[in-house]
Amino acid sequence: MGHVIPLLRQKCPSIVCRFRRLLGAAIRRERERQGLSQRKLALMAGSNQTHIWHIEDGSVSIGLDLLCRIADSLGVKVADLIDF
């Protein structure tokens, strides 16, 4: 069996990494604007604080389902978070 590379250590094309960081920054900005902690947003969106931290950091991909739940929890449209 080969070694499994942890998701956080995988290389990604520079454009993908850039979009992850921009999306994460948009989520963080809106969360902080509303005075929510990462833990509170995670609970509202059905995730966990560590995953929200990684999303905001741009170090992991985010699925469409979770992106929709985060946007809904923040009371914004997905389009507002990806307008970059």
Q: How many separate helices? A: 5
Largest sheet: none
Count of DSSP strands: 0
In percent, how much strand structure appears in the residues?
under 5%
Structure characterization notes:
- This protein has a single domain (14-81), classed as 434 Repressor (Amino-terminal Domain), CATH 1.10.260.
- With 84 residues, it is mainly alpha-helical.
- It has 5 helices and no strands.
- Helix 2 (38-45) crosses helix 3 (49-57).
- 62% of the residues lie in helices and 0% in strands.
Brief summary of the model shown:
With 84 residues, this protein is an all-alpha fold. 62% of the residues lie in helices and 0% in strands. Helix 1 crosses helix 3, helix 2 packs across helix 3 and helix 2 packs across helix 4.
Sum up the structure in keywords.
84 residues, mainly alpha, 434 Repressor (Amino-terminal Domain), 5 helices, 62% helix
Secondary-structure blueprint of this entry?
Blueprint: H1 14-33, H2 38-45, H3 49-57, H4 64-74, H5 78-81
Helix pairs in contact: 1-3, 2-3, 2-4
